[in-house]
Amino acid sequence: MISLDLSAAFLIGLMGGMHCFGMCGGIMTAVAIQAPTAQRLPLTTAYNLGRISSYMLAGAASGALGATLDLHQFPILRLLAAVMLILMGLYLAGWSTWLSHVEQAGRGLWRCISPLGKRLLPVRNVRQALALGMIWGWLPCGLVYSTLTWSLASHSWLDGALIMGLFGLGTLPVMLATGWFSHSLKGLVQQQWLRRLGGMLILLWGCYNLSLTLPSMIPALPLHLSVSH
Which parts of the sequence belong to the Urease accessory protein UreH-like transmembrane domain (predicted)? Predict the structure, then answer.
């Protein structure tokens, strides 16, 4: 099942690229524009490696937490993951804004760490770019939170880290291109049909996983209740 989750995480990152552009496109453009042409690729690559490293750290923590919950017999975590994907698909397609409220959960942490990122601007070397990416990886994002639920459901710190790492790699093509073609990409990702296509694909994936999870919960329910009593 974990191999399927890894593939799904990569596809979610790839399909959610337009959302990543909206969330991180500004900082990526700033890093690229302020860098000499010869330094542009190393700096934007380092920034994204830092960002993905933070995703993997969060995924490892989430997977470790899932392991302590011991809910293998009652897969409520996978149900939550499927529901979060459905909400993310609706959000990306522009059919619901409910998931934006979930992003508010991380605002407090972001207010504490975002000043550290501002001190690293303008980025002049790879170490600064890497550190900036690691900080920016904690930016409150519904897409990241949705994928983190899969890390939580993996019941493993290693699997959780791998899921978030593959998700980060999925976002990489759009994010690297942002540093070079930000103006062209801006017009592309603002196309309503493209946003809806990406949203619908994530929505369908969430519905598919929901259809797999619900039947498995029916026989598990009596067992779960008996253990509770």
Answer: 8-204
